[in-house]
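note to self: dont lose this again. the chain is below, predicted strucutre after it. 230 aa total, dont forget to put it in the shared folder this time
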Amino acid sequence: MGTKGTAGAKGSAGAKSGSGVSRRGLLIGAAATAVGTAVLAREKLERAWWRLPGVDKPRTPGAVDYARAEWIAASPANWRQADRPADYPIDRVVIHVTQGSYRGAVKVFQDPGHQAAAHYVVRKDGHVAQMIRELDVAFHAGNRSYNERSVGIEHEGFVDRPQDFTAAMYASSARLTAEICGRYGIPVDREHIVGHVEVPGTDHTDPGKHWDWDRYLKLVRAADAHPPAA
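---
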């Protein structure tokens, strides 16, 4: 009787199931799973809370990602609010040519009817305007996946006029691209720094045959190796 009673006491306290897993173990495992699920849910909520109706993610008006840039806001109709790289990893830089003047590009990017804009515009003299924050998705590539994963840089000029691509423009754009690549860990190569013409599904030809890719990548690598002082 005593032996059976002892065994019975053990059984009521923590008898093992037929699979060899104790009831306590099952409860601990279930609790751990619940905690893990809660953590994931909380992280997802932290990233998505600002998308709720009537809630905006905190922004600083006029803030730029590139210290040398002038902030000129594009129309909100030409980009989509996001939280990159938390929601979309950034692994591309797309090079564009405006097929027009710097002033013309800025004007159309401020036009809500244009339905397109790039993050940056580089002028012939090297001046840089930032029109969309890098954390947001600009409508610049004509491909949703590329829009979500890339930063777009426009360059003043025409694809059939090599004289438009000045030394000042190349140097300034290369510094900008080097900083973007450094910020997101993007390799400095032709797989990750591409022309608009190389985006799948696009009907654009920029930056065209006169854009000197070898020269540009050398400048980007040099700027990447010698970043400006903080």
